[in-house]
Amino acid sequence: MRIGILAGVLLGGMTAASVHAAEKVVGNAFFRDAPPHRMVLVAKDVRSAYLVEAEDDRPRVVRRFGRILLGANPGDKRVEGDKRTPEGVYYIQRYLPEPRLAPRYGAGAFPLNYPNIVDRIRDKTGYGIWLHGVDEEDEDKTDTKGCVAFDNTSLEVLKEALDIGTPVVITGRPDLLAPSRYEERRAELLERLDRFLEARESGDHAALDALIHPDFRNDRGEDAGAYLRRIERRAAAYPQRRMDIDEVRIYKENGHRLVYDFERFRCAPDGIAFGRQRLYFTAKEGSSPRLLAAEHLERPAGPEILWRVKAFLADREAGDPENLWVRRVRPDRYVVGYDRAPADGAGRRPGMEILRLTGCPGEFRVASVGWEPLP
């Protein structure tokens, strides 16, 4: 992403209303240890969209786009052809350039992942919900079939700012909070996530049952009962497993629909899993949110393991090891080798230090140390 390059250009688009809103904090996004990134917030009731930049775990509006076009009919999308713009948390799937599109899509388009897993649970139908430009020769156009349309100048700004995977929150109005209230809300949401993860890792059936929605489904096809049974079996079979989360992002569509999106690293005797996890919570008015859906976007664990090995070696004052290699024997057994000069007075020529490590990445223990002289 080109956050530093674009910042000056984007801030140039701030309006008086945006400056006034800057006294508040956007309460549709919360973070913990998240890297800089961007999101789009679409506010249907005021027919505006906002480009939001997350930095130092705070959201900041860097551009407001007015006069966007939405579906011809008000309300949340339910079925194909109802000409409504869906409400929820979505992610950009790809970018379609102008030459590949019909004139009505203008300068380009960003397809969203509608219907997402929550929409499918709710039996919503339809497809082809995009952020796109407009046909400038069709000056009388006032709405879409459900997409969010921007003037082509705005779309050019978005083309430079957005990536595949950028979140798009579509809601009624932006939730603007005083800074103190924002921090209170952030603490509440993070505490809820930590409480859920603690119950899940410990296999606490009673606590989980109170936190999981009866209509729950995940991307493995499990319902609430199957999900709970699998968690309980894992907790009983692998009590010593390790689970770390990082880069927590929370996106809130309104008062009762939100998504926790974070990196998860799990290590147990039966294997290692690494990737992004998305937990979709929902609630009725006046009740606590419950988990309605879960997705896991698997990623190769090798780079994460290598990073954790390097962090472990740095703690052992091995510096930045040369010719480092890592061989995983089991999820909790590793052999690590790297070139290293012997300690002063050791009476050995430079060679390769070989460590046998036990434990999951992040809690390594040295089982043995070997040395092989270089030829």
Describe the overall structure.
The chain has helices spanning 3-11, 16-21, 117-121, 152-161, 179-202, 205-211, 224-237, 302-315, and strands at residues 25-26, 29-32, 37-43, 48-55, 58-66, 88-91, 96-97, 108-111, 130-132, 148-149, 167-171, 176-177, 212-218, 242-254, 257-268, 271-282, 290-298, 322-330, 333-340, 351-358, 365-373. The chain has 375 residues and is an alpha+beta fold. It has 3 domains: 3-174, L,D-transpeptidase catalytic domain-like (Beta Barrel), CATH 2.40.440.10; 178-298, Roll (Nuclear Transport Factor 2, Chain: A), CATH 3.10.450.50; 302-373. A 6-stranded mixed sheet has the order 2-14-15-16-17-13. The longest helix has 24 residues, at 179-202. Residues 1-20 have low confidence and may be disordered.
Quick synopsis:
With 375 residues, the protein is an alpha+beta fold.
What's the CATH C level of the largest domain? Mainly Beta
Strand content: 35-45%
Query: What composes the largest sheet?
Result: 6 strands, mixed
CA-based gyration radius? 25 Å
Order of helix and strand elements from N to C terminus:
HHEEEEEEEEHEEHEEHHEHEEEEHEEEE
CATH superfamily of the largest domain: L,D-transpeptidase catalytic domain-like
How many DSSP E strands? 21
Reported by name, the CATH topology of the largest domain is L,D-transpeptidase catalytic domain-like
Low-pLDDT parts are: 1-20
Straight-line distance between termini: 45 Å
**In which order are the strands of the major sheet placed?**
2-14-15-16-17-13
Count the helices. How many?
8
Fraction of residues in H or I helices? 10-25%
